[in-house]
Each structure stands twice: as structure tokens, then as C-alpha cells.
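A quick aside before the break. I want you to see a complete sequence-to-structure record at least once, exactly as it would be stored in a machine-readable document. Don't worry about memorizing anything.
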Amino acid sequence: MVEEPRLPAELLRRLPATFGSAVHDQLRQWEVLFPAEQRQLRAQLDWLSGLALPEFEHLFAPLEELETRMALGRRDSAAGLGVRDVGILARSPLYPQWRREVGKVFNQIDASLSSIPLQAAPRLLLVVLPPAASLKDQPVWPALVKLGKWLSLDRSFGDVLSGLASSLVRRTSGADFDAIERNWAFECGSRFSGLPNATVLSWDALDALRREFLRRLNAVERDLRSVDQTSEDLKREDISRLAGPPLTGSPKVREFVRAVMLSGNGSLVFGNSFVEWGAAEALRRVQPQILIAAFGMRQKLKPFSSLVLFEDQTRSNPVPDQDDPSGSLADAVLLAEYVYLASQRVACYPGHTVTLLTAVDWNRVLILGPQTARLTNEPATPEQLAAFALSWLGG
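That is the input. The structure line, written in C-alpha cells, reads:
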């Protein structure tokens, strides 16, 4: 458990309005931040607190100038930004420049931090496509193939997946991870529903929550006040009753799911979008030692429903659902690569992660990352693949 940092009032007053308000908001949400987020925030605040005044002013000078030009000006960061301030920020033509400057500040802070616990721990990313026999003899992920090697298996990966996942989550962790940041899985269906020692988020299992959010969003009137009010209501609403144990038992996971569902990217409408965006957010926020992303089959879009952003096409069109294998596969191949690329943007993953990419009906796996030379016997058995993964994690 990471102890909550005490933010000196003098430091909070010196921070630019937008930056200080964001920090203050994170501190207010401390109990629903994941351990990795808490470690990062604590390290950032400790570093800022020890920064000499000239260096502090130099770091934030561009951001201060932009806030003045946007008519935000100097204010008490602890008070946060009001609705008017947020509107000014979002509508300002300087908003893209402001975002870049905020990114630069965080990059400078993070580059100056000393080692954060668990940053160099070994990790594993497993990304699985739905049935992809049509791509068996076609080049897939050409850019990624250059970074790794294909390993042939003595059977299809679907016959290996459940046993491999079970072996991975039952291992004894060699690093001091918190229980909630060891094993995460995202899926469209329910293959991993009984997986122990893991946070499993299923698009199908969240059906009641998704439909309620879609219903509320489709009732929004065409004015900003209605949009803002609905958004605030959904952020505050108790959603535990709409989902199972993963949400009921952990406020951190509950708020994570709410954020994924409300942040767009198609997570409310398409299962594969949920898997990709949920996995990317987990990599950024949770930084689990093991993450599994299993893509699935989506339904064909129906006339007069697929054109509406938040429409529940099952409700709006009585035509029976039909699987869309080609569309699902086209989505999944691209989204699988996005998951890998998302991991490479988080400091703890590059150089410390073995990534496995495959499809449930393939008898080959693309392996990226260190230690791929350990697997020399082909075709590999399930036991050999599991031993390789466990050896890496134990290293």
C-alpha cells in the first residue's frame, strides 16, 4: 500500500492553475488510483517539492504564459477549475499547444525521477485474435515481425490458451506487486470468467452496465447543459448493481470500468474496441505484470442503427444478429498491434516485456521482446511454452 503524499500548500499555490488543479484532483481520488499511479504521483510530487525555485519557474514558464494568453491567469490551484474555466480551455485555439506543453512538463519530470519500484520487473503481454484461418498463409503484423520471431506449436493456440493462462496466474510472483496489479485479462466472451488471482473484464459480462449507459446517453438532449449533466450523473452513479464481483469488490476496478466506458473509443458499442481500449488503459494506469487481451467476434452492423454513435442496435433493429468474421478479424489484427504499441509508451514495459501475439486457431506465435532465443525446439509443446513464460517472469 502506497502512503498518500502530503502536498505542501505552498507548492500547490505555485503550480500553474491547470496543472495544480489536475494534481489536486488526483490526490482527492487517491483511494481509487492504482498502486502504479500512486507510486508515480508520489515520486512526481517529491521531485517537485525538492526543486529549486529558479528551476521550478523555468519548468512551468511556458505553461504559465499559455494560461495567461487563454485568460485563465493565476488562481488558487487547490480550488480547481470551474465550469467556465474548463470551457475557456476546451474552446481556446491554444488548447493543442497547451496539451503539448503539459506533456513536455510531465516528460521532464519523469525523466528526472530516480528509479520507481517495479519499473524493471519482468512482464508478459498475451494478445489473441479470434479465428483467423484465412490469414494462415498471409503476412500479419509486418512491422512487428521484424522485431521478433515466429514460434511453431504442436497444436492450435486455442488448445493451449486456457492451460497457459491458468499456469501464469497461479505462479508465485517474484516481484513485490500488489495483488490488484499482477494479472489482468480483457475479453469479449467468457473464456477467462473463472480465472483465479486475476482481474477479468468481459464485454459480455458488462452487458447490463453497457445498456444502461447507452440508454442514458441516447436520452441526451441536443444542448451542452444536457450533455454535461448526463456526463456528471453517470460519473457519480453507483454502478455496482449493474455488474458482477469485479466491480462490487473493488472501487478501483469499478471506477476504471466506468472511465473506460465513458471515454469513447467505441467501448460501449463494440467488444473488440472495449478489449483494445481497456487493455491500453490498464497498461497505462495499472501496469500489470501480466495482461491478456483476447479479441472476439462482432456482429454485422444493422441498417439505421449503425449510423447512430451510441445506438444499441439489438434494441433498435429486431433483425437477428449475424456474425461478421471478416470484419472482426480486420479490426482485431489492427487493434492487437495497438495494444502492443500502447505497452511501448509506458516506461516499465519496453525492454522488460515478452509479448505473445497469435490467433486461437493458429499453431504459431509471434514472440517479441527479450529471451526469445530460449525457445529453440519446434514445434513447441504447451508445457515448453508455459515453462518459457514462467521462466521469464521468474527471472
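Two observations worth writing down. Residues 325-343 form the longest helix (19 residues). Confidence is low (pLDDT under 50) at residues 304-309. We'll return to this after the break.
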